[in-house]
Design brief:
This protein has about 80 residues and is mainly α. The chain contains four helices and no strands.
């Protein structure tokens, strides 16, 4: 995993602050949330730029790095 200068935090760890509900892992919760938001907006996770924009508009606390990670993971989960 590439780490940008000054960005030492693992994305999966940072998702815990936003999506730790106790019921599911934060990564699963984030992907379920993203799938619902994208479905409601009519955006495919395969359209990465639009999906990232949609998620960041839905949750202003998401960093670009987090949104990219969530979109990629959501796309992978939907392709299985």
């Amino acid at each position: 995993m590439m780490v940008l200068t000054g960005d030492q935090e693992d994305t999966r760890q940072s998702l815990r602050r936003l999506f730790d509900s106790g019921d599911a892992s934060p990564e699963i919760a984030a992907c379920e949330w993203a799938a619902a938001v994208l479905d409601q907006a009519g955006v495919s996770p395969g359209d990465q730029l639009q999906a990232i924009r949609t998620l960041r508009q839905a949750n202003g606390d998401l960093s670009l790095k987090q949104a990219v990670y969530i979109v990629r993971q959501t796309a992978l989960r939907q392709s299985v």
